[in-house]
Design goal:
The complex is a heterodimer of chains A (192) and B (197). By secondary structure, chain A is mainly alpha-helical. In chain A, 68% of the residues lie in helices and 0% in strands. In chain A, α1 packs antiparallel against α2, α6 crosses α8 and α7 crosses α8. Chain A is globular, with a radius of gyration of 19 Å. Chain B has 197 residues and is mostly helical. Chain B is built from eight helices and no strands. In chain B, 5% of the residues are buried. The radius of gyration of chain B is 39 Å and the shape is flat. Chain B has a domain of 50 residues. The chains are: A mainly alpha (192), B mainly alpha (197).
């Protein structure tokens, strides 16, 4: 928990405490979805501005954490989609979307990706590997593994077909595993 | 003279020729490489999608929350302060005070009702022609604007007709080439500057 001595004239003191309790969770949700620290801080700020507007209800709500997570997720997805639309014209010219059927994953994964790597280094590798994934793989992957959303909900939230969600998540896992294997255990041999 | 083949004859001919090809010899070392690949797979079988899902899930779920930047709290509080100082009439409707919102709804409804009544009376009464004349006088600038627009279009079409076709098509081709170049440069810049970052 942070102990920044900042106090606000307008925001009630318990809002500051509320924010300190949840800011890591909100920031983590945003940064894992967006993959960019600066933009995620902006999103986290927007989430807490909204929370401040609804603070009378959230103050005593037992589901405040869930509310914050949902708002952070929705704002992050909106942000990515807005950004994607802005660039989609150029993106479509140079990047063919890999829609297609499910394919067999053909590499031998070890029981753990990180033999002999300490835990903080290991966390750093995984976070960096997530950031390296393209948006269309990282977003459904994060929604599935961190937010526990089923495929159908992910398809609805991201506005893509169910089959594409499944394919993107599979490809995302495959890409993530490759990055992790290269990073954490370069002696591992695998082929895709 | 060669007789032209029917599609069926062509199919049979190609089929015969292809089936008559002898087997190709495997390249040197193929057997050893195949044997090594088979052994490697026997030692470490290929991962099924389900197994991969479990592995990735386990790795991701062990991650703790990421630490929010130390600047976040100060930023949020500063933004709340800033918003608190913005006057209500500079904010969206939902932030207006309740009495102001009520008054706005009442005034808006009154103006709308008055407009409906006035329109109904005009459509029924003898004063309609006088109103039409008044409006036409007030909108005289529209006809002057249209005349100016029409003169501009005529002038432009005359100038365009005076340009030799070769120059015209050449110019259009140049513009198209430049457009394609800039789109290509934009796509390349996006690919190598934005996506790689």
């Amino acid at each position: 928990m942070h102990t920044t001595p900042t106090q606000s004239v307008t925001a009630p003191p318990d809002f500051t405490t509320f924010m300190r309790n949840y800011q890591d969770m909100v920031y983590s949700t945003a940064v894992r979805l967006i993959g960019n620290e600066t933009q995620s801080e902006d999103i986290a700020q927007d989430v807490f501005i909204k929370a401040h507007e609804h603070f009378d209800n959230l103050r005593t709500s037992p589901t405040a954490g869930g509310w914050l997570k949902t708002v952070a997720t929705n704002l992050s997805i909106n942000h990515i989609q807005r950004y994607k639309k802005r660039w989609s014209f150029f993106s479509d010219l140079v990047h063919r979307d890999d829609e297609g059927g499910e394919k067999e994953v053909e590499f031998a994964a070890p029981d753990t990706f990180f033999g002999g790597v300490d835990s903080s280094e290991r966390r750093e590798w995984i976070e960096r590997a997530l950031e390296k994934l393209p948006d269309h793989q990282r977003v459904p992957l994060v929604l599935y593994h961190f937010e526990d959303l089923p495929y159908e909900d992910i398809a609805r939230k991201t506005g893509v077909s169910l089959s594409k969600v499944k394919t993107d998540i599979l490809r995302g896992r495959e890409a993530l595993a490759k990055i992790l294997l290269r990073s954490g255990a370069s002696h591992e041999q695998f082929t895709t | 003279m060669n007789k032209k083949m029917t599609p069926e004859e062509l199919e049979n001919f190609i089929h015969r020729e292809l089936r008559a090809l002898p087997l190709r010899q495997a390249p040197a070392g193929f057997e050893a490489r195949l044997q090594a690949a088979v052994e490697a797979r026997a030692v470490r079988p290929a991962t099924s999608p389900e197994r991969l899902e479990q592995l990735i899930h386990r790795e991701l779920r062990t991650l703790p929350s990421r630490r929010a930047p130390s600047t976040l709290e100060a930023r949020v509080l500063a933004e709340i302060e800033r918003r608190a100082t913005v006057a209500w009439y500079h904010k969206s409707w939902s932030y207006w005070p309740a009495p102001v919102r009520s008054a706005f709804v009442a005034v808006g409804a009154t103006v709308a009702a008055a407009a409906v009544v006035a329109f109904y009376r005009l459509s029924q009464g003898a004063a309609a022609s006088a109103v039409t004349q008044e409006v036409a006088t007030g909108l005289g600038w529209v006809s002057r604007l249209m005349a100016a627009g029409s003169w501009t279009v005529n002038f432009a079409s005359q100038q365009l007709a005076a340009i030799p076709p070769l120059w015209l098509y050449g110019g259009l081709a140049f513009l198209a080439a430049m457009y394609a170049t800039f789109v290509g440069l934009g796509a390349t810049a996006y690919r190598y500057l934005y996506r790689n970052n």
